[in-house]
Amino acid sequence: MTMQAVRFESVSKSYPIYEAPGDRLKELLTFNRWEFHRNFWALHDVSFEVRRGETFCVIGENGSGKSTLLQLVARILHPSSGTVTVEGRVSALLELGAGFNPEFTGRDNVYLNGSILGLSKREIDARYKDIEDFAEIGDFINRPVKTYSSGMVVRLAFAVAINVDPEILIVDEALAVGDLYFRQRCMRKVHELRMRGITILFVSHATADVKALGDRTLWLDKGRVMEVGITDRVVAKYLAAMTQKDSAYLAHHQSTAGRPAPGSTVAPEIVETIPNIDHRYGDRRAEILGIAVLDLSGAPVQVLEPEMHIVVRISVRANEGIAHPNVGFLMRNHLGVDFAGTNTMREGQQLPSMMAGDVYTVDFHMELPELYPSAFSFSPAVADGPLEGFRVCDLIDNAIALQMVAGAAEVYGFMHLPCRVMVNARLKGDAGGAQQRRDAEAPRKSMRV
Q1: d(CA 396, CA 413)
Q2: Which end of the chain has less Cβ packing within 10 Å, N or C?
Q3: SS3 call for 388
């Protein structure tokens, strides 16, 4: 048995595009001696391999060729050129309802799909109860699929896909249609299959899911391979490209409102160290000079502790006029998932316009919640414009990372929410209850500059 489950070698795929319906008939009548179409190339010279037992993610904009690639793996399509090699039973969750006959009942479609995948009736019988239980669509399992909602179709399709003992599982964006409860169950199941060594091809626009699941990732753009490799690195480059594209769009469609105020401003204290740069992107009209995590005395913090008061200090410099500067940071967990974050506009602090050469230092005072023991990184950023339409000037991925130490008690989940426990208390009808309500409704502390 080879070590590769999927291999693409110089694969290209084209679709004929006809300007008028009659052009297809003309081409048939001339036995293809004359062409009345133009070719749309969905994939161009794509080469990669997926190792057995690997979770391989595919990212890219809409129309980049992701679905075409998965359909080639599922043997729904054949390449126009190149070679696609797939070894193992493939179970695919592709377009909504793909492979389902809308006139058949859910039960009939379970047996139909199982048969297509090579299972005997006895094998499907043995799996049917698990499929029905996971789908959780009740009596609808005995009704025609055409009566299902889109979410119910996804539930049944996913339940079938994971219960036919796949060696290769393909999951497209279909999960985005499901409700939160079912989506969480699906993600847990994907993690379970991953631990069992099932080869998974996963396509999603949710980069947090990609970073949490993917061993390696392929980035497609207009049918071409832009990058393939370690997930964190590929996702960072993809996000950088999308940010730059968005900034270019805004620059083209919007004019900068207002002029920077005259005068020059230099912060009295400036941090000029950036401990780490995983990736850096933005138009650099303003840039991060440094970031530090400090205690109230101004000393660098070595480790994070539950309920600790810290100051995230970020210094930025304008290289040209910035009408609406906005400084902030993202906090990421050890999986690279954006865990929390804030910025000056989010906290209600409007920074003055900046002229070229102006330097601002922004301090974010925050009391840490009781987080689970892990490493957390801080990614500083400076942008220009309002929250609903800003341009990124500079963003540094994972500029500084610190370890959260364990507290006195175990943290269940990601964090412990502060709470006050009362037993047999009254919330209505007495003065004590009124005071309890006032205590409970007291505003919580939030990040402030």
Answers
A1: 28
A2: N
A3: coil
- At the topology level, CATH places domain 4-239 in Rossmann fold (3.40.50)
Distances (CA, A) of 117 to 110, 170, 380: 11, 14, 49
For residue 33, what is the DSSP state?
S
pLDDT digits 0-9 by tens, 68-114: 998 899 888 899 999 999 988 888 776 655 668 888 999 998 998 88
**What is the distance between the alpha carbons of residues 113 and 420, in angstroms, rounded to a whole number?**
53
Q: How far apart are CA 264 and CA 362, in angstroms?
A: 17
What is the DSSP annotation of 269-309?
A: S--------S-EES--SEEEEEEEEE-TTSPBPSSB-TT-E
Let me know: does 76 contact 234? Beta carbons within 8 Å: no
Half-sphere exposure of 438 (CA within 13 A, CB side): 6
Residue closest to 402 by CA, chosen among 326, 447, 339: 339
Closest by Cα among 208, 210, 229, 207 to 218: 229
Asked if pLDDT for residue 429 goes beyond 70, the answer is: no
With beta carbons less than 8 A apart as the criterion, state whether 194 and 56 touch.
no
Judged against a pLDDT cut of 50, whether residue 448 lies above it is answered with no
| Residue in the structure block whose two tokens are 């500067």 | 325
d(CA 244, CA 221): 15
The residue among 158, 420, 371, 397 whose CA lies nearest residue 276 is 397
With b for 16 or more beta-carbon neighbours within 10 A and e for fewer, the 393-422 pattern comes to: bbbbbbbbbbebeeeeeebeeebbeeeeee
> How many angstroms separate the Cα of 170 from the Cα of each of 75, 98, 206, 393?
12, 13, 16, 37
Task: Give the number of C-alpha atoms closer than 13 A to the C-alpha of residue 151, restricted to the C-beta side.
Answer: 8
Report how far residue 433's alpha carbon sits from residue 402's, in angstroms, rounded to the nearest whole number.
Answer: 42
- Residue linked to tokens 């996963």: 202
pLDDT in tens, 326-349: 999 999 888 778 888 999 999 989
211 pLDDT higher than 80: yes
Distance CA 111, CA 164 (A): 11
pTM: 0.60
Measured CA to CA, the distance from residue 150 to residue 446 in angstroms comes to 39
CATH architecture for residues 280-403: Distorted Sandwich (2.70)
Contact 9, 47 (CB under 8 A): yes
**Computed from CA positions of residues 393, 399, 400, 406, in that sequence, does the dihedral angle turn out positive or negative?**
positive
Q: Tell me how crowded residue 7 is: count the other CB atoms within 10 A of its CB.
A: 16
Domain residue limits, the chain: 4-239, 280-403
Could you read off the pLDDT of 369-380 as tens digits, one per residue?
Answer: 888 888 899 999
Give the tens place of pLDDT for each residue, 10-35.
Answer: 999 998 887 777 777 777 777 666 77
Angle at 234 between CA 230 and CA 236, to 5 degrees: 120
How many CB atoms are closer than 10 A to CB 346? 13
